[in-house]
Amino acid sequence: MLGAKGVAQSGAQFLADVQNEITRTRLRRQALDKYPPVVLGISSEDAVTAGTFRAVGVRAPADASRKQPDENAKGKKKVVPKEIERESPYDVAPVVGPGARPFIEGRDQGTPGVMEAVDLADWMRPFLSPGKGKPSEEDLATADERLRRFMPRGAFVRVELDTEMWLNWGLPAELPALVRARDTLVAEPPVQVAARFAGVDDLHLGGLLWPEAAGRMAHTAYAVREGKGRGQVILFLDDPGFRGWTLGTRRLLINALLYGPGLGTRWPTPW
Questions:
Q1: For 41-51, what is the mean pLDDT?
Q2: Mapped to the 3 state alphabet, what secondary structure does 91-139 carry?
Q3: Residue 146 three-state SS
Q4: Nearest Cα to 145, choosing from 260, 51, 254?
């Protein structure tokens, strides 16, 4: 069992690294082909405007048709975020959950970002090279690296627990978790996801959480368990017992230590 101090230079990162082929759990930045993140927040045009100076001349206005829903090949409507007027590309409000909203009444938080999820490839399309129909793996990795810059450095967020799993014995269906991660984890069966982050609308509890981070984190893994040989691997995205006062997630760690040797493992002898 290994925890991850921000999934950076940690045991959890080592075990989830695709190059080591130890676990089926993956760092999201290494699984963009299968689990591409969505983008919440400002448009790619605003992101470029807020970045390093570019000298490419005046751009024509965006096609008006991009602001309206259209039909795809399967007859489903494609959701296109509405344009939001903001004073500058830096004028973006953080995500504020329902529990925190009463504490910010009357205080200017900035202009809310677009909270409709946009596929990462679609978000990049306005700035693809001429004649390029879709972004390359390198393009997606660059765009995802930008999203990782917004990952929280000390925010409390909501995690949902699988109440049928022994790692969560004695715990409610939801917990607050302190997150200081630079990446997140993705996993699906046969990996057991003991705890995952809530959806965007319910994710924030306290601290600074940018829309880009919320979109990238929502419904990814906080704690996972999978068998390995006769034993098992339990990974935590972040330190579940930080300074001894994150009591809810610390219970996850205690359950792993107490029950782990006997549950989810196989003894070498038949008796």
A1: 78
A2: CCCCCCCCCCHHHHCCCCCCCCCEEEEEEHHHHHHHHCCCCCCCCCHHH
A3: helix
A4: 51
Count the Cβ atoms, other than its own, within 10 Å of residue 269: 4
Q: What is the pTM of this model?
A: 0.80
Cis status of the peptide bond prior to 81, with omega within 30 of 0: no
CA 192, distance to chain mean position in Å, is: 18
Residue 176, Cβ neighbours under 10 Å: how many? 16
Structure-token pair, residue 20: 């080591």
Q: What is the dihedral of CA 228, 229, 230, 233, to 10 degrees?
A: -10
User: How far is residue 209 from each of residues 4, 87, 111, 181, measured CA to CA in Å?
Assistant: 20, 21, 14, 12
Length of the chain: 271
Q: What is the largest CA-CA distance in the chain?
A: 76
d(C-alpha 12, C-alpha 25), whole Å: 10
Query: For the chain, how are helix, strand and coil distributed in percent, rounded to 5?
Result: 25, 20, 50
Q: Is the pLDDT of residue 67 over 60?
A: no
For residue 67 the two structure tokens come to: 């602001």
Rounded CA-CA distance 25/63 in Å is: 41
Tokens at 271, concatenated = 């008796």
Mean pLDDT of all residues in 246-259 = 90
CA 118 to CA 218: how far, in whole Å?
Answer: 14
Report residue 158 as tokens: 């909501």
One-letter amino acid at 244 equals: G
What are the tokens at 71? 């039909």
